[in-house]
Amino acid sequence: MKKITYIILMSLFLIGSASAQQEKGIIGTENWLDNWTDFRPKVADYGEPNEILTGTITEDMRLNKRDTYLLLGNVFVTDSVTLTIEPGTVIIGDFESKGSLTISKGATLIAEGLETDPIIFTSNRSVKKAGDWGGLIILGDAPTNKFGNGSVASQYPNLEQSSYRYTNYGGDNPNGNSGVLKYVRIEYAGKKMRRGGGDGFNGLLLAGVGNKTVLENIMISYCAGDSFKVMGGEVNLLKAVSYRSSKNDFNFNLGTQATLNNSLAIRTPYVSSSNGARCLQVVSYEKKEQVDFTKKGTSLLAKNLTLLNSSNDLSEHIKMGLIKEAVFVGEHASLDMNKSVISGFNPAVILDHRITINQENLEKIKFVDMYFNNCKGNIFKENNSNNEDLENWYGNRSFFNVYAKSQNSETFIDLNNPKNPDFRLRINKIIAANSKN
């Protein structure tokens, strides 16, 4: 009888273990990257466009899957207008005219793809490269920490004077609703401007976007600007993927109040801007004189992220200066990061040199239940040669952080599968290491 009971208990344990999932990093009982993502977009052929989108859209419009659309120049969806995009629709950004799509403040985008039929924004070049076209911009009426409202006019090349009013963002409505962006891929965006010609585009720019906007299952790959750039507003991002961005994967600024959940950033040592780039940047301003410090600074709750450097020779790439930090936290910004994985960086996190290391500020920058793997240093202060106090603080057992030195191939389920990679952690592969260096 005892033997039978033992066999039953062991069977239940094995069944439970087989169906279990790792709680750190991206999670899911199944690989949620399947079907709708594409880690090899260069081999895709979407055919030639048969419809053109240009100028301003002043009436409600529906884009159909049966057609392929070309974004010609700066296309604006104006106030009170709704643009609906059917699942499976392909929108191609024009290289020569730096095609872009802007959802202006007060307008609505309903781009709700399906897991088996995502909406795709991509390049019209035969040999596609990062920065082939502009990108997608959504502007809302939620608060920022700027004096007054803002404008993204400097993003665009050769912007006509009559279109300036469509580039404004910000207001006092945190519950603003700019629509739905779900099961969407944005490829080869982030067109750079010529010297003196503006700031350049990003993959997806969200400025003053409110918390009623749905932002889920969005993949941005091979972007020459930031993949996801968020300026103010209240934004909730779920299952967002940034793949091989030249600049930052996720950039939060200007008083954004945001959550980033169950999301992934994959970097490579050979793709980065000359100014460096991070998986996650959390700052409250670029120019101090532009912000009102009586307003909220940027605050991000980040949970179940996987931030991965895909280097196959980490120490050599670090020596060559090709690998930097994964996370940067600026002055007057707050980050609460938990149950996340940072693997293969130099170091994992850097805090702005202007941040005073004291109890008050450390309570605004939290790293709890983390998995730091194969990083040359973990949490440092910028331009500081001695970070022992920080390492000891975040290394305290009460934070439940884990430090390890394992190869990516041993850490993640199947990252070398070219078609359907799986970046979830392997079950029971988290082993704490004694050293944090």
UniProtKB/TrEMBL annotation:
Residues 1-20 form the signal peptide. It comes from the Bacteria. Keywords: Signal. This is T9SS C-terminal target domain-containing protein.
